[in-house]
Model the fold of this input.
Amino acid sequence: MQSTQEIFEQLRGVLHDLFEIDPAQVTLDAHLYNDLEIDSIDTIDLILRLKEITGRKIQPDQFRHVRTVGDAVNAIHALIQNKSAAA
Amino acid sequence: MSDSGLPNRAWRVFATGFSFACFGLGAVLMGFTAWPLLRLSSRNSRVAVARVQRAVSASMRLFVWLMKSLGLLTYEIRGREKLAARGQFVIANHPTLIDVVFLVGLMPEVDCIVKQALWRNVFLRWPVYWAGYISNATGEGLVAACVRALHEGRSLVVFPEGTRTRPGEPPSFHRGAAQIALAAQRDLRPVTITCEPITLYKGNAWYRVPPRRPHWILAVGEPIAIAPFLAAGEPQPLAARHLTQALEKGFDVSVAQQSGGKN
Done:
């Protein structure tokens, strides 16, 4: 079971690998679109990568309300919790 | 003969309004007559769409001819022959309202991306529908539709800025064009557009005609190879960022040279 802090660190790594986003810019309040310039096409790639990492199917719906890095961390956390609850 | 006198300017305001009225009325008229007839002229929808696109291209040339004949503009096309080949992925900067009119006029069969608002525009919705243009409504679907068009051997024109350039600022590109090029594995054919003095820019009403008759230059450049960006083995989002940066830089230079070198 991962803590939100661990998820946050991992997400930072993913954002750097995929989009070359400076980890210093990635804060919980950072807005994915406005601050980090992640566009709708990037979002698809990001969700694909998160699927690989979490081993969990992700419906784009579950990310529809994600605006900030913090939102994303919470969404991923909820996903993982669901998985361990189901297991 | 003075080009900037008041009577001349008043004439250009009137003639610009007349030209745009012709454009709108022509679009509506054709949208209900010639274009649907052409679209239904073959059961093969690709053949039919190509016929509509050629006719639209001809009407764009007619519109440019009209504006030129009325003394509203002059223009020059550099390297026009480079646009003759089919299946090209053309990108251009977007300083003015009528850039697409020039480009579509230069390319007899070409797909372009039309923003959602125009699909609801009373003048343009039917022409863009019959010509089979691509809507920008969805991010993922948009890239896929553009890639499909290129893979089917059609030409495509995209303005990577997504909207007209803010005057005085360098072009700022979205990454969609790079994403399309990388996904379709197509090199990009750049067209640098400048207009001097600038007119019909973003936020500039059509009746605010410039002090002098404006002159457009459309310069067709050499292809930009995507191989180096694919060869690096980066994930596509990263490659798209690097390609976009390279495209922006290239246009920065070509726009500056073209507008600084001649006016």
Notes: Residues 69-86 of chain A form the longest helix (18 residues). The mean pLDDT of chain A is 87. Chain A has three helices and no strands. Helices of chain A lie at 4-19, 40-54, 69-86.
